[in-house]
Amino acid sequence: MNIKIRQGKLKGSVHIISSKSNVHRLLLAAALADKPTEIAMKGHSEDIEATGSCLMALGSQVESSPKGAYVTPIIAGTKRVAILDCRESGSTLRFLLPVAAALGQNILVEGKGRLPERPIDTLTELMAKHGCSLNSTHLPLEVSGKLMGGRYELPGNISSQFVTGLLFALPLLDTDSEIILTTKGESMGYISMTLHTLSLFGIEITKTESGYFVKGGQEYKTPAYVQAEGDWSNAAFWLCAGAVCGEMTCTGLQMDSPQGDKAILDILKQFGAVVEVVEDTVTVKGGNLHGCHIDGAQIPDLVPILSVLAAAAKGDTLIYNAGRLRIKESDRLAAMADCLTRLGISVEEGKDYLLIHGGKRKVSEEDVWIDAYHDHRIAMSAAIASIVLKQGVIVEGAECVAKSYPGFFADFIRLGGGADVL
Questions:
Q1: Which listed residue (301, 371, 375, 411) is catalytic?
Q2: Which distant-in-sequence residues (6+ apart) come within 8 Å of 295 by Cβ?
Q3: What is the pLDDT of residues 42-84, one digit of tens each?
Q4: Of the candidates 256, 302, 263, which has an alpha carbon nearest to the alpha carbon of residue 280?
């Protein structure tokens, strides 16, 4: 589906949908718990549906409820091979691989899009060393055997999702385990989210100098009812638009959230925007925006929309330590360099950085075609870029927003943007 963006001015208020990252974790913990759990949540996405369907394949029941989802725990002991279709969700894949193995469940894991290309060999090798039999290091993948406790060593800069999967799985084992990070961790905010979720369900994890100690034989205890957090990653699209267009308000955000992308508030201030916070509401107003330096190591999901903000700001912006964006749903560094270049912005692309020369460009009289690269965050960034850079844009493959934010274009239109399906 191609969408033509008509010019407008984004302004107003939007209630942010629930955090995809938070809901993934809550669904998994609820499925491992002793009794049913109701999860209050706003919105849905293809990735969340993938996790729900995989949990049901493992023996859980995930049903809609008036407030969101009602999850009945997995009934263990089945001998059949569970088929886990992770669709395009990296979180679903990397979380459930070790969890299914900890349950002793034989599985066939499938995926589509770019997911089969995304690396999981670090995780599969660890599982093979700890009691599992795997027929491959990539999808489709068959796994049998039961995961065993012990020492798990892995680099901290590969994927926080590997660590999260292990943190969910290892408490289920009979013996104690230790996770050793051999390099400095990246995207640590996501691991903080995992630890917070585990604590809600009574699981204790001890932070060590080099990683985490996980006591075996623990039981997940449901809180019965839990509220999912608003999504700071998706809020960032509207907040960055507000910094350029004049003013934007986002409600439903948790100020003490462990989500790493809450860093958008400090980054907006660094760019020169005015940020106002009242309880669960954030309002961003435009200011004298100027370029700055941004470390992308802990905030990979913010980099696409921050690249758009950098293009609108005066001067140079360097986004560095961002090499892992090349193995996301797309090569996000290359995708954003291509997007901004097509929009007339000068961009220098390095192995792990983007240098964006903002504030100077020539507006084309014709619409610019932007490839979303089957990546939800590229599609949404391109739409926002059209408005803030005042350039007609046609986003190719815009339907990929359904991966995390199916209602994005509906909110985009309601807030003053124009969008027509071609």
A1: 301
A2: 320, 321
A3: 988 999 999 999 999 999 999 999 999 999 999 876 668 999 9
A4: 256
